[in-house]
Design goal:
Elements: H1 2-24, E1 40-42, E2 49-51, E3 56-58, E4 61-63, H2 66-75
Antiparallel strand pairs: 1-2, 3-4
Length: about 80
């Protein structure tokens, strides 16, 4: 009988300590949900893959930089 009372006392103490520690700890931060997926496009000059928002439009497709757009348009002039 004595062992049961000691076990109950230890369990109650453990439960009280655990609940008080949970109250003191900050709540876990929720991760922000990622935005909608975007299509991946390849640079018409070098083939680098990038999200649509980062691509630069040009006369021969999309490009990863202004330099690649200019180089492509210089090598392939519009008729």
């Amino acid at each position: 009988m004595k062992a049961v009372l000691v076990l109950l006392a230890v369990a109650a103490l453990w439960w009280l300590l655990r609940s008080s520690l949970r109250r003191r700890m900050p709540a876990p931060k929720r991760r922000a949900k990622p935005g909608t997926p975007q299509p991946i496009l390849a640079c018409a000059h070098c083939g680098l893959h990038m999200p649509r928002d980062e691509a630069l439009p040009g006369s021969g497709g999309v490009f990863c930089s202004d330099a690649h757009r200019a180089a492509f348009e210089k090598a392939n002039p519009a008729p």
